[in-house]
User: What shape does this take?
Amino acid sequence: MRETSSRLLSLLALMQSRPAWPGSELAERLGVSTRTIRNDIDRLRELGYPVDATRGAAGYYQLGVGAKLPPLLLDDEEAVAVAVGLRTGAGVSGMEESSGRALAKLEQVLPHRLRRQVNAIHTTLSKGPDNTGSNVPDPEIDPVVVTTIAAAIRDEHYLRFDYAVPGQESSGPSLPLLVEPYRLMSWQRYWYLAARDEAGEWRTYRVDWMDLRMATGRKYKPRPMPDGDYTNFVMRDVATAGWKVHARITVFASAEEVLARIHAAVGIVESVDEKTCVLVTGAESLEVVAVYIGMLGFDFHVTAPEALVDHLKIIGERYLRAIESRTD
Assistant: This one.
């Protein structure tokens, strides 16, 4: 019985390693007859593994899609990597509970030697805060919202939702938006959706600002972005319109020098002359914008917003007081 169980695990591992296997090749790999392979396939099906079979001279076996999730086979390195990733990965705010449940289930089936490895890493590893780059709390993302949007993209269904940008709420009720969803993107701890609006224009929507309405069930005819570069589109769109704070800054350096210090997609750089350019960028707070532009390492002048000018005055006075305290 132990030999049969071990062979079943080996058979399952082989079938998970590539899409299709001829029965004769499986028999050769495991050193058994094709009849034994057929019997083992039947046992896997009884255990809940959906195995599809194509008959004939060119026949083969492959794992199918079943109604329930059977146990996964991971080698030692894969099991440790998944467990450590669940413990230390930043993940998505709002999914901590489901990540914890997945980790608990995995650790229950880890062999003692692997559990010791995972615990050793866990007890000796320190992890810095995920929100180091911002003084703004991470938005809570409902996993159901993400999976619903992903399903609409997969099925090419229109998506309908209310959209409220903090600080820009209208006084009266607004009609829900109807869009063609194309791509989800996770960036800087936020989730975004790239979609076409009813006018056919490409737009970026923050997922945590969306309130989904009832599913439409209506299919749309896909019209993908011509170059397919959704990532750069989302980043550029967010840089110009997707932040709570937007800034326009004159930098006393060439556009090439500024672009060499930032990602081209997180800010729009407009050349003025060989020694001057304008940077249009943003962030979730004045404090974060101030830090980013200070890290450029160039002299600059803030054109807008006025609140950023006031904040820089406060920071400048604070830094001057720090210097004066050393000379007293």
Notes: The longest helix spans residues 306-327.
